[in-house]
Specification:
With about 650 residues, chain A is mostly helical. Chain A is built from 28 helices and 2 strands. The chains are: A mainly alpha (about 650), B alpha+beta (about 230).
């Protein structure tokens, strides 16, 4: 393509290592950068970062609610057009420039430093609340080592006359989640104080994370052998278990029943695009950092395709497993409902047992209705519909902590399944957190704001301690509402903007020609037309469309949230409440700061450059470390480099 | 005046007794049916046992009556309750019926409902076990099932698991930190000797751990860099 649109970018050559320098590095292994022990560690880490809780509890719900099997079409199309190109881009740029996100964008152009800092901030915020979800998973894991499981029955009230009222009116699983785990307050303004057991779980989650991340990829590289592979093992175990349960096949059928009309709804395509984008953990900076530890001639194109395919397949596999269990639960509920009705009929009419069974229930009911409609009226029989139970489709924490835990209580040997399930969720979440932490620690090192001689352990400890301190707000009574706020507003828009900036920066500031040459140098052949078209046009367009949609919906939607209020009238249905007015300020800070950092930093740089123009001729920018210094050592007898960028 | 009282003859006595004996079930039935002190009982054998359910026949009813009598004996502490004091009526195919309890001293008097309820609640577990049923399958309508006491733990089990996990993590952290410290110490000692053989110790795979501890502006002297021309293939 002759479209050589390229923005002027002076001084690029000085900021990045040349191809010859890279070769030198490769041969002498003289870098101080950490390295992967083997390719498997790298692949497992990336797979672990991409495959997370969203694959298990967001994708199945989207699949089922947007026309089942038909949802695969937009999902796979957007995987190919949006996911794979973006992944390849991040891998290639990290491998080429051999720095974390801040270093990469600063090397491309100093005015783009803001993009890296925005990545770091978003990684930090997401890490904060994502680890809180892991703390919840750990709490359930701790509580799984007892029989019967604590969420299988209601506790007895103080006067020993019956069950606790809140539990009676809702269900044991709801009660355990909202009261025993979260101890939710009725609204976000009521803080409810710190829940000590939650603080302990949070502490546990952050210390486990710290011990795995303590030396960067040296330790996470070992940890991912378990955290990335165990979920697949557990999913397979659950699949086998699920398929042997009654009703599982109806769940899978329900999941995949295609409804082609959904393809005409733009919402389906937007949800598919958003799911692909967020599922790949793009724009966090973690993938760039991981890729920068690779050898220069690693085949990043192949890696990108493999990881994308694995991510997509995992989503589909997890959806099958989840819905087999949901099918089982729905069938159990349906059976309970029907048997309850049958029992009422038998008791009311004193008929012998076995007179009315599931198969002749409808005719029997009709006959009795004709003969004694008054009694039938009094009984107030419930309508039992399997489809309704199946489509009580839930996503997110509701799926994991309410629906699935209920299904587990109905299986024999429940504690075993509970332990397995929560270990799986824990591993899925932890491996994603590795990437988040990497996305914060590496930019922090690149930015040089902390003393240089601090070891990596100190950096990771600092990040973990600060995140833990902030995350304590999620251990309050109102913590879940805060988490939903963060999840809903802090993440989507900044990530989309960062990804868009990344693509623009690589294609038009770094230069697509230079990028193509780099890839040819690294893997041996120039990227073909597919990559050119997607990097330059298709993927940015898709990301832009998704961003506009998100922006419009976020700005125009009413700021409401759902709350658990035992005093409300339609308890146990969750009540919808309005956010208080000061929440808007917080939302603006959360979503606005990462986004506004990008132009702000560029502006600050501009002003600084204008003011101190004389000093610009000096090496104000950090020269590329080792080989530059090597050259300086060679060329000048006395070496006294003005800058000592020790990376 | 001598009034001649005619003593009942043998036939009359037997006839009278016969009437009473024949009447008593009818009397008993009336007591049972019209009573407000009666309890309705529902038994769900098929739900409890499926295909292995035993049949509800007169013998089973006999067992029921005897367990009720046992319950009354246990509650009141009087050994006078017998099977005749438990009256059953209104049998249905559902397997449900109504029963009442009569005073042992006077078979025409019924024990009030509350007392029977207390007796039943006290011995419910034994009555259930006699029939291999549970509170759900042997239902006394109007008597709420006694709730099982939940297991009380001295230490909540979750705290134990939490302790174990935190312990393992603490051990891991200490081990890793100690290994870092010992590596640093070794590197410092090597650096004092400028040992060329230990080059691979100097060039570490970590970002800034050993090197940054050496406080050298120029970094470690790596002989690999001294003769560039030999290595450059370009």
């Amino acid at each position: 393509m002759k479209l050589k649109l390229k923005l002027p970018n002076p001084g690029l050559e000085q900021r990045i290592p040349s191809h010859s320098e890279l070769e030198k590095l490769e041969l002498q292994e003289a870098g101080e950068r950490p390295k992967w022990d083997n390719k498997a560690q790298y692949m497992l880490t990336c797979v672990g970062f991409c495959v997370g809780l969203g694959n298990v509890w967001r994708f199945p719900y989207l699949c089922q609610s947007h026309g089942g099997g038909a949802f695969m079409i937009p999902f796979l199309i957007l995987l190919v057009l949006e996911g794979i190109p973006l992944l390849h881009l991040e891998f290639a740029i990290g491998q080429r420039l051999r720095r974390g996100s801040v270093g990469v964008w600063r090397s491309i152009n100093p005015y783009l430093l803001g993009v890296g800092i925005a990545s770091m901030l978003v990684s930090f915020i997401v890490g904060m609340y994502y680890n809180t979800i892991i703390a919840w998973v750990m709490w359930y894991f701790f509580n799984s080592f007892q029989d019967p499981l604590p969420w299988s029955q209601c506790p007895i009230n103080a006067s020993r006359t019956g069950f606790v009222s809140e539990c009676e009116r809702s269900s044991p699983v709801d009660y355990f989640w909202y009261r025993k785990t979260l101890n939710t307050t009725p609204q976000i303004e009521d803080s409810g104080g710190l829940q000590w057991w939650m603080v302990l779980s949070l502490l546990c989650a952050w210390t486990v994370l710290w011990v795995c991340c303590i030396r960067g990829i040296e330790t996470t590289g070992k940890a991912v052998y378990i955290t990335s592979t165990l979920p697949y093992l557990v999913l397979t175990i659950f699949l086998i278990r699920g398929l042997t349960l009654k009703g599982s096949v109806s769940g899978i059928k329900f999941l995949f029943t295609p409804d082609v009309n959904e393809l005409l709804d733009p919402q389906t395509w937007l949800d598919a695009g958003a799911q692909v984008f967020f599922s790949f953990s793009l724009a966090f900076g973690g993938l760039i950092a991981f890729s920068s530890y690779n050898s220069v001639h690693n085949n990043c194109e192949q890696d990108a395709v493999i990881i994308s395919v694995i991510n997509g397949m995992t989503s589909i596999y997890a959806a099958i497993v989840i819905y087999s269990i949901i099918g089982f639960r729905a069938t159990e509920r349906f059976d309970d409902c029907l048997n309850g009705n049958i029992l009422s009929l038998l008791n009311a009419f004193d008929l012998p047992e076995g007179n009315i069974i599931e198969s002749n229930y409808t005719e029997a009911l009709q006959q009795l209705n004709i003969s004694r409609p008054d009694i039938i009226q009094e009984l107030q029989l419930k309508t039992c519909d399997l489809q309704t139970f199946l489509s009580q489709g839930v996503e997110g924490t509701g799926l994991a902590f309410i629906v699935f835990t209920e299904a587990i209580t109905k299986m024999p040997v429940s504690p075993l399944w509970s332990v397995l399930f929560f270990i799986m969720l824990f591993c899925l979440g932890l491996s994603t957190m590795f990437g988040s932490i990497e996305g914060v620690v590496v930019p922090l090192q690149d930015l040089d704001i902390l003393p240089r001689n601090w070891p990596k352990e100190a950096y990771t400890a600092l990040v973990c301690v600060v995140s833990f301190a902030f995350a304590v707000i999620f251990a309050q009574g109102s913590g879940e509402y805060w988490l939903a706020l963060f999840d809903g507003f802090a993440v989507s828009i900044p990530l989309l903007i960062i990804a868009f900036c990344e693509m623009m920066a690589v294609s038009y500031v770094y230069g697509i020609d230079r990028f193509n040459d780099d890839i040819k140098f690294m893997i041996g052949h120039k990227p073909n037309f597919f990559w050119q078209a997607t990097w330059r046009l298709i993927s940015p367009l898709i990301v832009l469309v998704i961003f506009l949609f998100y922006f419009v919906t976020t700005v125009s939607k009413k700021l409401t949230y759902i709350a658990w209020d035992p005093e409300s009238e339609n308890f146990p249905t969750l009540s919808t409440l309005q956010y208080p007015s000061w929440i808007s300020a917080i939302i603006f800070i959360l979503a606005g700061i990462p986004v506004l950092i990008i132009p702000t930093v560029a502006l600050i740089r501009l002003i600084r450059n204008r003011c101190c123009k004389k000093e610009e001729t000096h090496t104000a920018e950090t020269p590329y470390s080792i080989s530059d210094r090597v050259q300086m050592m060679e060329e000048t007898e006395q070496n006294n480099p003005t800058t000592t960028a020790l990376h | 005046m001598c009034v001649k009282v005619q003593m009942p003859s043998g036939e009359m006595i037997t006839g009278f007794l016969l009437t009473i004996i024949l009447m008593s079930p009818v009397v008993a039935q009336d007591l049972c049916k019209e009573s407000k002190d009666g309890f309705k009982v529902r038994i769900s054998l098929k739900t409890a046992f499926g295909d292995d359910a035993y049949e509800w026949n007169e013998s089973e009813k006999f067992l029921f009556r005897s367990t009720l009598a046992y319950a009354m004996r246990k509650k009141t502490g009087e050994d006078t309750y017998n099977i005749e004091n438990i009256l059953v009526c209104n049998d249905t195919k559902r397997v449900s019926f109504i029963f009442v309890v009569t005073l042992p001293a006077d078979p025409t008097q019924l024990i009030p409902k509350e007392e029977v309820e207390r007796a039943v609640r006290q011995s419910k577990h034994r009555i259930n076990n006699a029939f291999l049923l549970s509170d759900m399958t042997l239902e006394f309508v109007g008597v709420p099932p006694t709730l099982a006491v939940p297991i009380q733990y001295n230490t909540p089990p979750w705290l134990i698991v939490f302790g174990v996990v935190i312990g393992i993590v603490a051990v891991g952290i200490v081990a890793l930190l100690m290994s870092t410290v010992s590596k640093r110490r070794r590197a410092k000692a090597k650096d004092a000797g400028f040992d060329e053989d230990e080059d691979d110790e100097g060039i570490v795979k970590e970002n800034g751990t050993a090197l940054s501890g050496l406080n050298k502006k120029d970094g470690v002297y790596n002989p690999g860099f001294s003769n560039d021309e030999r290595f450059t293939k370009l």
